[in-house]
Amino acid sequence: MNDERLSRLERCLWPEGSRRNVWMIVDGARDPRVFPMLLDCHLEYSCLYSGTLPSALEIAAPYLVRLDYGYSDTHLLLRHAWGNNWGVFLKCDGALNRLRRHLREFLVVRGPDGASLVFRYYDPRVLRVYLPTCTRDELSTLFGPIECFWMEDEKPETVLEFKFNHVQLASKKIALG
User: Where would you tag: which of 52, 80, 147, 164 has the fewest CB atoms within 10 A of its CB?
Assistant: First the structure.
């Protein structure tokens, strides 16, 4: 990602400038560089899985990361993640523990036969298809304290933004250039 595109993505995620309300759910399973990058950065993050994990699962787990506007570690993560389907971004004014608790509710779902399935909703290729199929009640549950979701479109030159106003889902495409 070049500097101009990074700047446009930042303006999309932080239209009001420096605020601590933008998060990313980053998928450790997408790339072996994700976990070491989290360990080396100074951003606040927490694994969405609970308990002591085997190292292979810890490396491949999804992590909730608070992104800091204009910060070099945020830039590094954005440059690597965008265009590689490393995760989804969201806007929420809540604290990490509260948001983590909310997002953990969707990690496991029941399949048609009642079996438990891992729901990788934090993969942009999944969420951008799933959200438009949801009922109003499902959207209300999924969004909860979240104001909006952003993710890359099939072509990473476009940001997809999804908002729910308690009545309907609104989506918008934003060109990064």
Answer: 52
